[in-house]
Amino acid sequence: MKRAREPLTKLIYTLLAVLPAAALALPIVLTLTNSLMTEREIGSNYDWLGKMGDVAKGQQDAFVNLKLLPDWLSFGQYAQLLLRAPVYLHQFWNSVGLSAPIVAGQTAVAALAAYAFAKLKFKGRDKLFLVYLMAMLMPFQVTLVPNYLIAGKLGLLNSWAAIIGPGIFGAFGVFMLRQFMAHIPAAYAEAARMDGAGHGVIFRRIVLPLAKPGLAALIVLLFADQWNMVEQPLIFLEDAFKQPLSVELSRINEQARGVGFAASVLYMIPMALLFLYAEAYLVQGIEQSGIKG
Amino acid sequence: MNRRGALLRDGRAALLFLAPSALGFGLFYLVPFGMGVWYSFTDRTGSGSFAGLENYREVLASASFRQAAANSLLFTGIGVPLLIALSLLLALLLNRSLYLRQTLRTVYALPLVVPVASVALVWQIFFDWNGTLNAWRHALHLGRIDWLQSDGSLWVLLLMYLWKNIGYDVILFLAALQAIPASYYETARIEGAGKVRQLLHVTLVYVTPAMVFVVLISVVNSFKVFREAYLLEGDYPYGRIYMLQHYMNNLFLSLDVQKLSAAAVLMVGSIVLLASFLLRAERKFRDNLE
Q1: Is residue A261 within 8 Å of A77, Cβ to Cβ?
Q2: Interchain pair A287, B114: CB under 8 A
Q3: What's A171's domain CATH number?
Q4: Among A57, A77, A97, where does a domain finish?
Q5: A189 touches chain B (CB under 8 A)
Q6: For chain B, which domains are there?
Q7: Mind listing the pLDDT tens digit of every residue in chain B (290 residues)?
């Protein structure tokens, strides 16, 4: 009797878990499906956004008409986006240009530092690591003014370098990779050291390859974070043509709404691909970072 | 080689490995923070003369700082426990045998990588005065709520925070749950513990060490909702979601460097206190467990 009941309980619990998953996926799915509507349909569905209905004309019950599926499947938004709105494409590449050096730089610098924190013994190690940990917790605004002044002195204002510099040396990478490397058994390094390997060799040949999931997870998380950047460009970049797409997308107004969903999808694609490609690593990396090493 | 020699050799290697990170970290974080502390004690006129605690007094007395601090505290105070409770619940659910388990975890984690700006349009459509949420309320014969221009804005922001971060916490909790040896549950069962007692005395106890890290990450991420607030409502959103970051950004725009620095030092102080408390609590708990 018990055996007969088991698939049923399993099904019930699955359904319980599917509900929140559906809710979480909804905004993403809606963005995707709405990007396949014609500009006209978008116009008629969402014309009421940000407007007051005229009660005298019987419009007090006016609402937007959120639809999951388009009436007509159309790639018109994407065509518009590519042909007539080059500003989005330009800013898409700005996002790439800002994020990629930060992700690459922080991963490299952090891997080196994390090795020292996880695998070497030196005076003041734990205290210094605590400083990194605390810095990781701080919001961007804390060092805003001095960073701005330093960038000004170095002549970096209104240039990407003012954002990329601090980005590369963010503390998150050091923290995450240190947690990950701490789980790599010391025996591997010991054995190599017996064979006369120095730290440079141990780092490159043993720790780095074993830390691959951690590195992959860091790259995904960093990319997601940088791809989202809002505060830094607002402060450091004056010219609109230097801004990343993350800032611009929020300013999509009524005129541009027709391509807004397609632009949003375009902006999701690199992250979605990276996520699907590296998901197993991402999960493993996050897990290890949470378990005390 | 004696112990001291090994330590010294490590020290030299450590210096090399740490140098790139430490130099940049010093230049972009530690030096700026030190400068900030200095500014916070100087006079507003720009003469650089020592002003004592005047800037702190002014910041603490300012109504907008108080409001922003209260809002940030309220948001983090509600958001973090809510996020932790919900993600623990989902992790417990995912820890059972389910159909589609991997797929479900993938979907939970997906918002983590979806750019905030990409779904901003959908949020707008949901929470507008003429938006979907109000259309539903209307269908139920309830009045409209101006979600972004009322205290409802806090809930809107909380929802976005939960949406974005629940996957991260679920993964962390799931790892902690799977690390609990099955034998602990068996022992509990043999001693006659029911499901509820097992949950309270085995599951929750052994998940607690992971909790500290989850709380820290969740607090960090709760500061990041400024992005969502900014993307939806700009520099001056409705009062309830005017966060410390809005306050500091606006001080920056009005070039009030000294006050901004004092506010930053106060913020750093509170975060350091909170984090030290959590880390100490964790150590105590761990010691008791062993």
Answers
A1: yes
A2: no
A3: 1.10.3720.10
A4: A77
A5: no
A6: 62-289 (1.10.3720.10)
A7: 445 555 556 888 899 999 999 999 999 999 989 988 998 998 876 666 787 888 899 999 999 999 999 999 999 999 999 999 999 999 999 998 888 888 998 899 999 889 888 888 888 888 888 888 888 888 888 888 888 888 888 999 999 999 999 998 998 899 889 888 888 888 888 988 888 888 888 888 888 878 888 898 899 889 888 888 887 787 788 888 888 888 888 888 888 888 889 999 999 999 999 889 988 888 888 888 76
Question: What residues make up the domain containing A49?
Answer: 2-77
A283 and A138 inside one domain: yes
Q: Which amino acid is at B93?
A: L
Statement to judge: residues A154 and A134 lie in one domain: yes
pTM metric for this prediction:
0.89
**Statement to judge: residues A92 and A69 lie in one domain:** no
Chain A interface test: which of B18, B76, B118 (most A C-beta within 10 Å): B118
Angle at A113 between CA A108 and CA A115, to 5 degrees: 100
A30 and A110 co-located in one domain? no
Task: Say yes or no: B89 contacts chain A, CB-CB below 8 A.
Answer: no
List the single residue in B24, B110, B121 with the smallest CB-CB distance to A109.
B24
Query: Are A140 and A128 spatial neighbours (Cβ–Cβ below 8 Å)?
Result: no
B128: Cβ–Cβ under 8 A, 6 or more apart, which residues? A48, A49, A50, A64, B134, B147, B148
Query: Using a CB-CB distance cutoff of 8 angstroms, which residues of chain A are in contact with residue B249?
Result: 141, 144, 231, 234-235
ipTM of the complex as predicted: 0.86
Residue A160 token pair = 């990407």
Q: State how many domains chain A has.
A: 2
